[in-house]
Design goal:
single chain; 2 strands
């Protein structure tokens, strides 16, 4: 883009440079904060995955029974006993980004006849509810990461724009205008001296 080689343009470029240099550290700090929080959430999600795996392993002796479902009478499968009623999420804020925050998972209160189920059904229902809770928490964390990574990409693009384009561009424009104005000033002085000598000769 062509830049006017004037004092007004020089001032404009200097003001723009100051603004970029003042804003850049804020963007860099935001970028670092987002990166740190994303790593923390990823670590938390890994913990939840590990806990889920442990619980599923503990349930492994029942998995075949769950799948076959031959122990239960028609319409009395375990899926009938574990039904989500409400997933409650709040809203948090990280570096100016609104993110969902897991608060609670509620299940429908379903009563059942003990005669229809084996003795281990209470423990199985509890574990299935915990697995559902872990899934809901994990889904919320995944959404947080998605939103924060989106903001991180945008912030990184701005940091790169300032560092690699806007600041070097403004500095180069200021340099070019400075050289041009310096040359103009030198030419004016030389012209002035020549004019003065001509006047002296003419007298």
């Amino acid at each position: 883009m062509a830049v006017k080689l004037t004092k007004n343009e020089q001032k404009k470029q200097k003001d723009a440079l100051k603004q970029y240099e003042r804003y850049l550290p804020t963007l860099q700090l935001k970028k670092q904060q987002l990166q740190m929080v994303i790593r923390q959430i990823q670590a938390r999600r890994a913990e939840l995955d590990a806990e889920k795996n442990r619980r599923e392993e503990a349930l492994s002796r029942w998995i075949a029974v769950f799948n076959e479902n031959t122990v239960f009478a028609g319409g009395t499968g375990l899926e009938e006993l574990v039904q989500i009623d409400l997933i409650k999420r709040g809203v948090g804020n990280i570096a100016g980004v609104s993110i969902p925050v897991f608060e609670d998972l509620r299940f429908k209160d379903i009563s059942y006849d003990f005669a229809d189920y084996p003795l281990w059904v209470d423990a199985a229902v509890y574990e299935l509810k915990e697995l559902a809770r872990l899934d809901a928490m994990n889904a919320t964390l995944s959404r947080q990461i998605f939103l924060l990574e989106k903001e991180l990409r945008s912030t990184s693009q701005r940091v790169n724009l300032f560092e690699k384009v806007k600041i070097p561009e403004a500095k180069e424009n200021i340099r070019r205008i400075g050289i041009y104005l310096g040359d103009q000033q030198t030419s004016a002085v030389v012209r002035g001296k020549i004019a003065k000598k001509k006047l002296e000769k003419a007298q």
